Amino acid sequence: MSNTRNTQESQDSRESQNSQNSRKSTDKTAEDRPSPMEVLRQARGQLAELTGMDAESVSSFEQTEEGWALEVEVLELERVPDTMSLMASYQVELDSQGQLTGYRRVRRYERGRSDARRPGGR
């Protein structure tokens, strides 16, 4: 009987330890995930490195199932006066660790122009 009790206690101890290790692993995964500000910085830096253009602003930012999705505004062509400079919006996708997985230009516009997208096509 004593042998059976020791076996059961040993098994319970292993299960408890496995449960604790599992929780630590989950906690570590959450800790390894970058903060939103770190993701923004990484996205801007990686996009600049790939395109050669500095990000001026981030106009949208959201967490997705795969990681993160951003829309980043960049200066594509500087003109005088500044209001005539050519800007572009890039859709940027990052994985859950903040590494850029893809980007594409979705819009080009002059800095001084407002969005022409209105309901009814006006």
From TrEMBL:
Organism: Streptomyces violaceus
Pfam families documented for this protein: GvpO (PF05800)
Compositional bias annotation for Polar residues: 1-23
Protein name: Gas vesicle protein
Region of interest (Disordered), residue spans: 1-49, 103-122
Regions of compositional bias (Basic and acidic residues) in chain numbering: 24-35, 109-122
Superkingdom of origin: Bacteria
